[in-house]
Amino acid sequence: MRRFFTFLGDCCRLSCAGGWRYHLWMTLLAVGVVVGVYAYCQQLVSGLALTGMSDQVSWGLYIANFTYLVGLAAAAAMLVIPVYVYRNMHLDDVVIFGELLAVAVIIMCLLFVTVDLGRPDRFLHLLWRFNFPGSMLTWDVIALNGYLLLNLHICGYLIYSAYCERKPARILYVPLVFVAMAWAVSIHTVTAFLYVGLGGRPFWNSAIIAPRFLASAFAAGPAFIILTLQVVRRYTDHPVSDDALFTLRRIVQVAMLINMFLLASEVFTEFYSGTQHSSSGHYLYLGLCGHHALVPWIWTAISMNLVATGLLMLPASRRLRVLNSVCLLSVVGIWIEKGMGLIVPAFIPTPLGEIAEYAPTAHEILICLGIWAFGLLLYTMFVRVSVPVLAGQVTYARRRARDDRPPAVAPFPSTFANVAASIAACGIDNLEACRYDGWYVISVRLPHGVVSGVARLARSGFAFLLQAFFPGDGKHRVLEQHAAGAPWDAFGIEPQAIVGLRIVMRTRERTHLVPRA
Fold first, then answer.
1. In whole angstroms, what is the distance from residue 269 CA to residue 125 CA?
2. E strand or H helix at 449, and its extent?
3. How do residues 447-485 score in pLDDT, each as one tens digit?
């Protein structure tokens, strides 16, 4: 148990350590989280009236992000399957980052559901009546939380084993890895069934929704991981090979082709039949009755996805700059397509034929940015902790060796030793040196006539305090002498009147024992 708590302490220490770029990035994310929390507090006080949602459009930007992030979490399987099923060793060193991403993203999903509830405290009333197995929401809750626990155990066990410098027992994590593979497919399938099962929304009543969800997830997820792996390779010592990036590129390439084919099939179904149930599709792609708020969104997404798919077919996409552009286009394009392009159109028009357009408000945008900042903060901390532990730079044995190391016996600082030598050179043999509460102190009784010789120390280039002792009254006067130096007469003191002198230096060096001079 002591070892585990030491591991947690080292994880906290590592998450707070880093260079100025790391601290700047974490500060920006923390500011984003604070802004999001402030906006959410206002939403708690005033209710969902602060959002752009209404009785007609009850799901908006929150559920759009939730849907997209579920796919991003499922994409961790695209790193796990090649390693554990096909023995692709190119991804062996980076598979942990996909699982850590799944943990951070699932937490973000739960946060988006929480902020969409309006009154999350009333969720407790649902715990006793989950309506299992009839409710798809119940299945979704089980799928998301189960996937979170699986990845928490796998990642935590592997990192903790590396910290303890022992080989992980395969029986304790490999079976769960294969369970997580199937679970990754299930979380997005269950989410798709959640929409497909709503008979009052014809836009979602399509058997192709679930395959589209999986195809888009297996395109956007690896694309996002490609971008993060390059950041890891640039700012850490963790090995990330080009072969790993190009393996993920092939996955994105195939998934984008399938996603575009399924999108074309969906568009054909909506427009060729021309039934009343295709009104939502008309509103999304062309506008309806003068209302076209989502038309720029969806055509921007389709353009991004087409450009990304076209570039992936070219050999130029093997260059990292082009690949990064492709990944960025894929991530943003699929976010628009699966978010605003899938959730909102299903509510327009309403079953009564009303057209109530939706546009996210500033509060919604700030809350979403806050949750994204929190997720990126978590993922950054996970990567920051895992890289040195997996590399063997931070282990329990090293921590114990550092804690059990005996106190070092340090010499005086070089400048301090020079001061002592200079005083001794003035003919003073009763010099005494010691250390008290972080201060190095030289105490000496001065005979008449040698103060002028000690005055040369004022030009030695350091700061110190002088405590001059006068005969008779038993009092002393503290004088400050700076590194620039000054003659003794600048203090207005006759050298012959001083019978004792103490030179005190401040040092940053920490020592447990200082020898006496």
1. 41
2. none
3. 444 444 444 444 343 444 444 444 444 444 444 433 334
Cβ atoms < 10 Å from Cβ of 136: 18
Residues 6+ apart with CB under 8 A from 89: 83
Alpha carbon distance 509, 347 (integer Å): 68
Q: 446 in helix, strand or coil?
A: coil
Alpha carbon 513 to its chain centroid, in Å, reads 42
The percentage of residues in the chain with a pLDDT greater than 70, rounded to a whole number, is 76
Average pLDDT over residues 422-437: 53
Task: Say what percent of the chain tops pLDDT 90.
Answer: 26
Q: How far is CA 73 from CA 145, 245, 287, 478, in A?
A: 12, 18, 33, 67
| 379's tokens | 């993922």
Distance CA 227, CA 447 (A): 73
Give the model's confidence band at 55: pLDDT under 50 very low, under 70 low, under 90 confident, else very high: confident
What is d(CA 7, CA 396) in angstroms, rounded to the nearest whole number? 7
Q: Which residues contact 479 (CB under 8 A, 6 or more apart)?
A: 465, 466, 467, 468, 491, 493
162's CB contacts (< 8 A; 6+ apart) are 389, 390, 392, 395
**Whole-prediction pTM value?**
0.75
Q: In degrees rounded to 5, what are phi and psi of residue 186?
A: -70, -35
Residues in the chain: 517
8 Å CB contact between 499 and 470: yes
CA 97-100-104 angle, 5° bins: 135
* Contact yes or no for 413/514 (Cβ under 8 A): no
Mean pLDDT, range 392-412, rounded to an integer: 63
Whether the upstream peptide bond of residue 349 has omega within 30° of 0, thus cis, is yes
Residue ranges of domains in the chain, CATH in brackets: 2-123+131-399 (1.20.1630.10), 414-506 (no CATH)
**CA-CA distance, 477 to 468, in Å (whole number)?**
6
3-class secondary structure, 271: helix
Q: 76 and 82 in contact (C-beta within 8 Å)?
A: no
In the block, tokens 């001794």 appear at 424
Q: Give one DSSP letter per residue of 15-55, joined into a string.
A: HH---HHHHHHHHHHHHHHHHHHHHHHHHHHH-GGGSS--S
Q: Which two tokens stand for residue 67?
A: 């849907």
Q: Is residue 483 a contact partner of residue 456, using CB atoms and an 8 Å limit?
A: no
Rounded Cα gap, residues 17 and 97, in angstroms: 19
CA distance 338 to 346: 12
Tell me whether strands 500-506 and 432-436 are parallel, antiparallel or unpaired. Answer: unpaired
- What gap in Å lies between CA 503 and CA 469, rounded to an integer? 12
Asked if 505 and 415 touch (Cβ cutoff 8 Å), the reply is: yes
Question: CB burial class (10 A; 0-12, 13-18, 19+) of residue 424?
Answer: middle
Q: What is the pLDDT of residues 71-106, one digit of tens each?
A: 888 888 888 888 888 887 778 888 889 899 999 999
How far apart are the two ends of the chain, measured CA to CA in Å? 47
